[in-house]
Write a structure and sequence with these properties.
437 residues; alpha/beta; Rossmann fold; 2 domains; two-stranded parallel ribbon; 15 strands; globular
Length: 437
């Protein structure tokens, strides 16, 4: 793949001048790794497409492969809103391949937002590819397209159907987008496939590790939701990028007919207990692993209450809570997937093991280590922990009370429980305001 001779370098430069690929959502977590991999391989000049008006490089990117590629013309940036087809057409001009990785934040359960990007935006991407005679389209999907939010999945393969109801609007609209991409295979010579990477982790992630550390510092990482035995398939981010490259190469090969028009589960092929994985990250960063187990069924009434509170106070600026019914289900069920089809048809195999991926991830967050947290901060965290445990116990009692009596139709208990719920909400808001002052 890499050529060291002068003639080889010349060929790479010529290839870059003549062949362009586009990465939508190119400043996202996994997309950044794909962009760097494509630049290193030198198969294409890389056009990074994202919402920002200009590209803002991180300090480590300035003198790295991306910074050099932008300076030399091996990469370029274009601002594009996928919901505007005219912008998409302009961004895809002259492209041979499109890696469609753009998507809204999956934690925001807003159907209108997700539909506008994951469905309408994907339709614009497909239409632009067909109109401009782009040869290959690789769509980044999600294993959640086959998850109903209730039943676990063990070693699931691509024969699994879409559920009648998805766990959230992100998953539902991702499934719609995936269907559009697969059905467009063969349109005006366009070859397509869908990649379903399971639970991506690695350096550059701004969600998983930071949220874990924030929870640990606030004393919230002591709990295991469920029995702690649920298995998961995680995928190191570099393996996700590698899978996209494998897919593009397969669609460009003699095996294209077999590889195209398909969806593929992508994992590290090393299933692990979900809570063990989380514990390894926390311990690696100097925090205690979670130990206290709380049955998921006990947490569900609280999660429903939290969701109700959010619906009431969201217009006033309340942030999206982590403790929701869909979140509880994700944390407590098994979700493992079989990548044999990707191995067989795309030639995919992980290039970084789970152990190495975990080590690289931990090393990428020195500023989040437990020893970087001051003793004063830890003392405050312990005090907050005590108060929050008391508050948690009270909320748990109210939730259990409501679940046991109110939902069974008792008028008296319904009235009392609603009063208690109202008092709890008022005390919660008062506590938040007191902490801020």
């Amino acid at each position: 793949m890499f050529l060291n001779s002068e003639s080889g370098i010349t060929k790479i430069k010529m290839a870059r001048e003549e062949r362009w690929c586009v990465v939508t959502g190119g400043r996202g977590f996994a997309a950044r790794h794909l962009v760097i991999m494509l630049i290193k391989y030198g198969m294409f000049s890389v056009r990074i497409a994202d919402l920002g008006p200009t590209i803002k490089l991180d300090p480590d990117e300035e003198d790295g492969d991306l910074g050099q590629a932008l300076k030399s013309g091996g990469a370029g940036y274009v601002s594009v809103d996928l919901r505007d087809k005219s912008q998409v057409l302009q961004a895809f001009q002259g492209a041979e391949v499109v890696f469609h990785m753009a998507a809204p934040d999956s934690s925001i359960n807003n159907y209108q937002l997700h539909h506008s990007v994951n469905v309408q935006g994907t339709k614009n991407v497909i239409d632009a590819c067909v109109e401009l005679k782009v040869k290959r389209l690789i769509y980044t999907s999600s294993p959640s397209v086959v998850f109903d939010g209730v039943h676990g999945i063990y070693n699931g393969d691509e024969s699994l159907p879409y559920p009648t109801k998805h766990n959230d609007s992100y998953s539902a609209t991702k499934a719609e987008g995936e269907t559009l991409v697969i059905s467009s295979n063969g349109s005006n010579g366009l070859l397509t496939c869908c990649i379903r990477p399971s639970s991506i982790f690695g350096p550059g992630d701004k969600l998983l590790v930071p949220s874990l550390v924030a929870a640990a510092r606030a004393g919230k990482s002591k709990f295991i939701i469920g029995d702690g035995k649920n298995m998961y398939d995680f995928t190191y981010v570099e393996n996700v990028a590698h899978a996209h490259v494998c897919a593009e190469r397969a669609l460009a090969s003699e095996a294209a007919e077999r590889a195209s028009g398909q969806a593929y589960f992508i994992t590290n092929m090393e299933p692990i207990r979900f809570w063990e994985f989380m514990s390894l990250i926390l311990e690696g960063l100097g925090y205690e692993r979670p130990k206290l187990k709380i049955p998921a069924l006990v947490m569900m009434p609280i999660a429903h209450m939290v969701e109700l509170i959010y619906k009431i106070f969201a217009p006033f600026g309340m942030k999206v809570p982590q403790l929701t019914p869909s979140r509880i289900r994700l944390l407590s069920v098994t979700r493992t997937f079989n990548s044999s089809k990707a191995v067989d048809r795309l030639g995919y195999r992980p290039i970084v093991t789970l152990q190495d991926g975990l080590q690289r991830t931990i090393e990428a967050y020195p500023h989040l280590r437990g020893d970087a947290h001051s003793k004063i901060g830890s003392h405050k965290g312990n005090l907050l922990w005590r108060y929050k445990m008391l508050a948690f116990t009270l909320v748990l009692l109210v939730a259990s009370f409501y679940h046991s009596f109110a939902e069974n139709g008792s008028i008296t208990f319904t009235m009392v429980s609603k009063i208690l719920l109202g008092v709890s909400i008022i005390l919660f808001i008062h506590g938040r305001l007191t902490l801020k002052t």
